[in-house]
Amino acid sequence: MEAEGLAPSPPAPRATQIRRLYFDLLGLPPTPAEVNAYLDDRQPGAYTRLVERVFASPHYGERWGRHWLDLARYADSDGYEKDRPRPHAWRYRNWVIDALNADMPFDRFSQLQLAGDMVADASVEDRVASGFHRNTLHNTEGGTDKEEDRVKKTVDRTNTMGTVWLGMTVGCAQCHSHKYDPLTQREYYQLFSFFNSIDEVDISAPLPLEATRYNEAKAAFDKAHRPLTEQVARYVSEQLPAAQQAWEATSPQATVVWRPVDPTTAKSKHGAELVKQDDLSLLATGTNTVADVYTVETVVPAGEPLTGIRLEVLPDESLTKQGPGRADNGNFVLTTFRLLTVPTAEKAAAPTEIPLQGAKADFSQMDWPIAAAINENPDDGWAVKPQFGQRHVATFELQQPLVVDQETRLTFVIDQKYQGKSHNLGRFRLAITTASPPHALEGFPSDVADILAIAKADRSAEQAERLRAHFQTIDPELAKLKKAVAEHANLAPAESSVRAQTVVQTSTARQAKIHIRGDFLNQGEPVESLPPAVLHEARARGETLDRLDLAAWLFADENPLMARVTVNRIWQRLFGMGIVETVDDFGTQSDPPSHPDLLDWLASEFHRQRFSLKQIQRTIVLSNTYRQSSATRPELLEVDPENRLLARQSRRRVEAEVIRDMALSVSGLLVPQLGGPSVRPPQPTEYSGLTYANSAKWAVSKGGDAYRRGLYTFFQRTSPYPMLMTFDSPDSTECCAERSLSNTPLQALTLWNDPAFFECAQRFGRRLLVETADVEDSAEGLRSRAALAVQLCLARIPSDGELQDVMELYLDQQRLLASDAAAAKSILGKTSLPADASASELAAWIIVGRTLMNLDEFITKE
Amino acid sequence: MDRLESAWQQTRREFLTSSASGLGAAALTSLLAREGVMAATLDASNPLAPKLPHFPPQAKQCIFILPAGAPSHLDLFDPKPKLHELHGQKPPESLVKNVRFAFVKKETAVLAGSARKFTRHGECGMELSDFLPHLGTCADDICLIRSMHTDAFNHHPAQLMMTSGVPRFGRPSLGSWLNYGLGSESDNLPGYVVLTAGRGSSGGVSNWSSGFFPSTYEGVVFRSTGEPVLNLNNPPGVSTDMQRRGLETISKLNARRLDQLGDPEIASRIASYELAFRMQAAAPELIDLSDESRQTLDLYGVTRPEPKKFSYRGGGAHVYQQFATNCLLARRLIERGVRFVTLVHASWDHHSNIDEELGYNAGMADQPIAGLIKDLKQRGLLDTTLLIFAGEFGRTPLWENRGGNQGAKVGRDHHPFGFSVFIAGGGAKGGVVHGETDEIGWAPVKDPVHVNDFHATIMHLFGFDHLRFAHRFRGLNVRLTDQGGKVVRELLA
User: Fold this and answer.
1) Which DSSP helix (H) or strand (E) runs through A554?
2) Nearest CA of chain A to the CA of B144: how many Å?
3) Which CATH code for domain A256-442?
4) Does the model's ipTM exceed the 0.90 cut?
5) What is the mean pLDDT of residues A597-620?
6) Nearest to A142 among B11, B103, B169 (CB)
7) pTM of the predicted model, to two decimals?
8) Which CATH number fits domain B61-243+295-473: 3.30.1300, 3.40.720, 1.20.1250, 3.40.50?
């Protein structure tokens, strides 16, 4: 600069300084109160104190996290034709934000992203960091070659590492060596080899706070739960035996005894097979296409009159949802249940129908009661949705006890004529009883009845145990205690359902080979993992170099590139242009640095400050160079139009996300919640129709999630949020070190008319009136309102001329709207009118807000 | 070094600051002093200001019709009697040995002749399928290439190959290159407009991406429902008059800042807002077809009845009307000076039921495209407008037998080794059939044309030497034709 005879620019006005700092470090505008506090701080060191305050904000991690996500080619979907959503991608983004807020040293930050899965005792957080490698595109289009896709990802991982940490476009050597490039094709595949043995896994990854909270809640729960389970154990060992004795002493014979039916035949009308199980139940297998009728026969000897039938429907592993039915959801519909009988001696006799009554069941689906199984209507019946996968019981009384004075054949007809569908029983068991009704659903199993009939002293150990086990199922006191345990168990804290995309090293390494002309099907010589020869050597921890060694190699003192590339990129974020202008290319073909000494000094500072990102950023933002005015001077335009000499700050439009955040922020709509899953603010409905076969559904987020910062907007690769793309967000298909910066009519239309921005203007108008409620309706009052409007949007006091323009616009529009009530009403939309304000006033302030939010200065860091 | 190239070698900022040192308050004052703020401002602050190519061009504007999903060359453009003869037989081992397919199972694959009848058209006697009767009437204006081949066999990469020259993301599309190189002749519409019909394409917005160029050069989607351009309409209650009044204040306040800080970017912003305001009037006028005659509407088939049975793959109800309307809008855009119009329709991915569904799509496309060629011609626009019809690849001369089985309604698989495209107007030679595939339509045997060659030829028609038309990015000189490309002279009139 001195050589060109140029003097540096004076410091920017204080208002510009604070707005610049907020944009650069937080991506949000300062509030008028924050601006005033800074303007009023006349003590020495005010700027330094401001810098410290700003660095302490958690929004810092969001701002610099978004910069990092550009490099990490972060997105919420796979890309390519199918472009499936990635519901866990955000977990990596959260890690980035947290790590930056904590000022994790850049070597650790890098190591974990390159090889977090390989560090000693890798924690969940370390593994989440390795999700860096999972941000590649992923092709699930039909007919895709999986190996080709894996190679493409590996190439992307290699190239991304080159751009991010070496500032080198290594990908040029993918197909063949170039004359002037520092990397040969062999060296390219040696780098490729580091990433060639990666496998992708999704893991359970509770958020750090979530994990802590869960552990605390679980401990508290366990503490409360233990006494309840202990109480049960105590009761079983101390009081249960006495209770059982008392029970045995009463007359258990009074209870119903269910005798299982041993089927002699079991048939299906439509070709299913009913297979008898050891417990005498029947399991349906084979065909299950239509409504079926099962017919089960058994023979009973002469004995006491039969009074009831029990049908148990049972779960089974072989059934969908474990049954008990064979429908897709595990249900069945028993439309009619019948009992027919014929004495075995009378071979040709027609069977007699035995009428049933008093049907009961332990559970019935709503509108599908058990009584429907024995009524006249063949279309209704008994079903058990949603209690699938468990046993249910139904009992039927015989209208008249069936006298069995000779051996008799019983035929049970199980009809399941449910709309012709295959809602058939999967597994069931029948039993009969001679007890007098009403029958308890459970009663005694016959084996228990048999044991009870044996004198206590004569029972075998096995029989005693069976009895004990049975009593445990019926003792009311124990049931009460167990119920208490079960009810309390419902209060157990839920484990986090959060998952993360991560990588692991394959168990056996994949041998990398040179791909001739970059074609993965045309493989040449095998290569080992090695860094480029033009750089320093790497040290292997084991026999061969791996990703963890690569991370260490990048941060070795001998590496001239990493620190320069990193500080250069930081410089570029803060000045709009790198010291080396090609921030992603430090190759031999790149442009020479404008200030080589400065670059070297910053790089050594970065080393000295142990790779603290905040520290190197602090060093820069505290410098006089950073604090200069961005106004151009005629002599600068002449000598240094691109501002390579840094004789002023640069003036640049802010990024897409910041523009959104600004509008939400000044209107008061912003929901500043940190982290969490991606959100879907409203967008035109047909927009996602541009994706393949409308594959990307856009379910608009409810409530506050519609007003989150731009970096949380769900990034669907084949149909990104239009506003972001209009303002040059990277498409996230590959590592992006520097965004392009366009200035288009579509941007004007977006800021003017996008409903999201107009909503901001509406809320802004209201905010303005509310915050100046005490201002009088006078020329002076108008003036102070207009001044506040400008201050909210631009964080500075307007000039007289500017105020004049704004007031004229207001008066003009207000006059127009006062005579057009319908227009004023439309402009207000859902905005409620503050007390003492008229619709035309509010509408005119909305228009003023909309105008100010469309100024070049509004979206520009000066 | 010619004028344009030297202009490219400067950044826009350099260009501005070195040529317009006086730009600032003075320039702005005069700007604002003109007819309100409505005056055209085709000044140096406009990155879309018209520029000249390397040598005098034949073509000045382009309509690119992208039948996404890849139409079957064998059933539309490339008759293969021999394939018909061999129908049902196994393909020669030598052909399929080293070939990857998306879905075809090699072991049971059989050759599949076309059910179509091909007839000769025009004085040139170009053979086209009975699915394309209307295009047949334009045969003498069409330049048909039957020897195309590409590098990618999945839709998305192959579409990127066709639209941006490489089967990867991140490169500018053809329309972006041309807007970057030539600027826009329209002062109230974007230089690059995209119209879509049917279902979304595999490539989505990446098919009209500006890649590493600023979004200034990206395709702007004109929408089929609602406002023609996203956010074109003012919010409810804001009249055109209020909008103009607001624009005046924006321009005045921006001019004050420009005066104070001297940043030329502010002048660009003022120009953008003025163009946006003019677009708000021009875009609705563009899509209003009430000034088109009955004859013209019928020429394109805008009011044809939709087929009774619609094809879901082809886009469903109303797609005939939509596509015909888009073709007519393409002409209106060309008339208004728009540099590049992309018409996308999806999908032509006929893995099954090809006879019925390709018939549906061809029925949709045939008349409107023929109408467009004739209409451009009768209005004297065809000479300088290049029309392109090109899918991402062709389809196999084998029946698809996904899972080893051949379904009842057969189709064809992806086929990058040989396919057909056509161009018309803009300096392309009419009535020409270029190149040949072998007798089963597998791969070119005469005059093969790679996608990079195709692009090189297009660039040539627009007056560019594709080898010199490059942009430095990540240390490489990047061009549309990547590492390849050779101008196919035989296609030039």
Assistant:
1) helix A547-554
2) 29
3) 2.60.120
4) no
5) 95
6) B103
7) 0.74
8) 3.40.720
